[in-house]
Every structure is written in structure tokens, then in C-alpha cells.
Design goal:
The protein is α/β, with parallel strands linked by helices. The chain is built from five helices and eight strands. It has a four-stranded mixed beta sheet with strand order 6-1-8-7. Bound molecules: iron/sulfur cluster (2 copies).
Length: 165
């Protein structure tokens, strides 16, 4: 049986809206920083599950650093080594896809937790708003808005599906 970390993006978003001062911890699971920079779980989840994948994506057009592009599946990818955290993409996105604090944490090591490290996993859970990150034996369950991001992480969020629109 696989044990997953379940990250409830719906609750995290609500906590962020309720408290603009809230600093949401981030988690990652990459072996090392690659040329595209560190990708956090929250960023991967938002671009994978809730981004509307706009045809002429305004976030890409507005980015002054050419830090955004689509991967072959149409999923937005951010090159964190290029991003200058100007947040122009946040402002222009018509769907509020990205949280306003989205682009700063990768530069703050105190807010980053490595999911390959069990101690970090527990620290990540403890640091997040109560009930937003839990450990579960459950599997992906679309009827409960729970989706598998990878072999370590489940994400709960309202899925945007291009096929439905
Ligand atoms: S925050 Fe980063 S990705 Fe977004 S527009 Fe600015 S440079 Fe580009
Ligand atoms: S503008 Fe927003 S919804 Fe559209 S592709 Fe960019 S991030 Fe996704």
C-alpha cells in the first residue's frame, strides 16, 4: 500500500485568502536543482490541475523574462532561474490561477521542505495551516477532487479539464 502526502489546495487557497500575511510553506522532491530551477509541489499542482491552459496565454506574453512556456502537453512551465518575481503573470491571469505569494518562496530555504527527507516531511506538515497537508493511504479519487501528482503526492483541488470546456 502506498502512503501519500495529501495537499489540500482548496483549503490552502482559502487560508491564504483569509490571511494575506500567511506564509505558506513549500515542498519539493527533486534530486537536485536543474537548469529550469526548483519546482515546488504547489506550483506543479496549480499548473497541472487548475490552470485553464489559455490558447494565447497572456501570462507567457506578459512575462518580461521569458520565464514561462508550455510543455508538449500544454501545461505551463516556469523556468525559475529566469523568473524575476515581478508577478505580472499573476496580475494578468484572468482566472486567478496563481496565488500572489507564488513566486518568492523558492528563494527562501527556510520555507522549503524536501519530501525525500522524512524529518522534512513532518516539518512541512507541522508548518502548514492545520488540516491542509496530511498523510493518507487513500488513492486518487476524482469524485472527491483528489488527484495523483506523482508517486508521493496527492493533490485535492478543483480540476480544470480542457475536454469539459
Ligand atoms: S513573476 Fe516570473 S514568470 Fe511571472 S511574469 Fe514575472 S518573471 Fe515572468
Ligand atoms: S493566463 Fe492563467 S489560466 Fe491562462 S495559461 Fe496563464 S496561468 Fe493558465
Amino acid at each position: 500500500m502506498n502512503r501519500y502526502l495529501l495537499i489540500d489546495m482548496i483549503k490552502l487557497r482559502a487560508a491564504s485568502v483569509a490571511n494575506s500575511e500567511l506564509v505558506i510553506p513549500e515542498a519539493y522532491f527533486y534530486q537536485s536543482l536543474n537548469v529550469n530551477g526548483l519546482k515546488t509541489i504547489r506550483e506543479l499542482a496549480i499548473f497541472r490541475f487548475t490552470c485553464r491552459r489559455c490558447e494565447d496565454a497572456p501570462c507567457i506574453s506578459v512575462c518580461p523574462a521569458e520565464a514561462l512556456e508550455k510543455d508538449p502537453d500544454g501545461i505551463i512551465e516556469r523556468h525559475t532561474n529566469l523568473c524575476v518575481s515581478c508577478k505580472s503573470c499573476v496580475t494578468i491571469c484572468p482566472f486567478g490561477t496563481m496565488m500572489t505569494d507564488f513566486f518568492e518562496h523558492h528563494r527562501n530555504k527556510d520555507l522549503l521542505f524536501d519530501l525525500k527527507d522524512n524529518n522534512d516531511v513532518q516539518r512541512f506538515i507541522n508548518s502548514c495551516p492545520e488540516g491542509t497537508v496530511t498523510v493518507t493511504d487513500a488513492e486518487e479519487s476524482p469524485e472527491k477532487n483528489i488527484y495523483r501528482l506523482n508517486d508521493k503526492v496527492l493533490v485535492k483541488d478543483y480540476l480544470y479539464s480542457p475536454e469539459k470546456h
